[in-house]
Amino acid sequence: AKSALLTPDAVKFGSLVDIQSKDEQVTDEMEEEIVRFSTQLAKNDSTVDTANDVTMLLEVVDELENTGDHCLSLVEMAAQKRQFAASFSAEADEELENMIIQVDELLHATVELLHLDADLEARRKLHRTAEELIEKVRASHQASRDQHASRMSEAAAASKDEPATVPGSKAMRSSLLFLEMLSALRYIAEFMWSVQQAYGRRHPDVAK
After folding, report:
1. Which of 29-43, 72-86, 167-181 has the weakest average pLDDT?
2. Number of other CB atoms surrounding residue 46 within 10 Å
3. What sign has the CA pseudo-torsion 86, 90, 92, 97?
């Protein structure tokens, strides 16, 4: 998804969509298997620790599956952008890239946190970093939406041939794609933060 958004000209979207679709299908199958495994584990071991592990695992798996769905959506949006020759302003491209970088950092911090061999202080640092990043993503998303609304208003006032607010116009299609991409990235960030919170509930020392 990241390559589709940042370097679309170098991407073969047909192949990438197929790969992403297969990855998403694998994620769905893994979720089903893990749910079955966790259910069986809970039946065989009724200790509090096991119950807490199962709860965290189910929460994490659900958010990872949601993340896979939205990564596929981003690839499909990028393919639509190329198909309809839609374009974003330089400011919008910069805002989108900035948000991609923030979400990517949050995703990597979350994956690293789930590596149980990391020491406590390292995991605390990853959790603090994730908390800072989710706030940055939320702020970036809101700022980009506000700035985009201003750009659209200015474009609508200045355009004579194809107002940016006309449904079905190229400008409107580009506008909607930009907003949908921002929203998908925000959702992925929120899913990762939910994973961080689930981990923190299971390991309270990490969230201190």
Report:
1. 29-43
2. 8
3. positive
- pLDDT of 95-107, one tens digit each? 999 999 999 999 9
Is 34's pLDDT higher than 60? yes
φ, ψ at 98 (rounded to 5°): -60, -40
Strand ranges in 90-153 using DSSP code E only, listed in sequence order: none
Contact of 163 with 140, CB cutoff 8 Å: no
2 Cβ neighbours under 8 A, 6+ residues apart: 100, 104
Check pLDDT > 60 for residue 170: yes
* pLDDT at position 118 over 60: yes
Q: Where are the beta strands (DSSP E) in 40-123?
A: none
For residue 123 the two structure tokens come to: 């995991």
Which conformational region is residue 85 in: left (phi greater than 0), alpha (psi within -120 to 50 degrees), or beta? left
**Placement of tokens 């189910």 in the chain:** 58
| Residue 165, burial from CB neighbour count under 10 angstroms (0-12, 13-18, 19+) | middle
Range with the largest mean pLDDT of 62-71, 77-86, 111-120: 62-71
Q: In angstroms, what CA-CA distances link 186 with 33, 108, 190? A: 28, 15, 6
Asked if residue 177 lies in contact with residue 86, where contact means CB atoms within 8 angstroms, the answer is yes
**Angle in degrees, CA 59, 60, 64, rounded to 5:** 120
- Rounded to two decimals, the pTM is 0.80
Give the Cα separation of 47 and 141 in Å (integer): 42
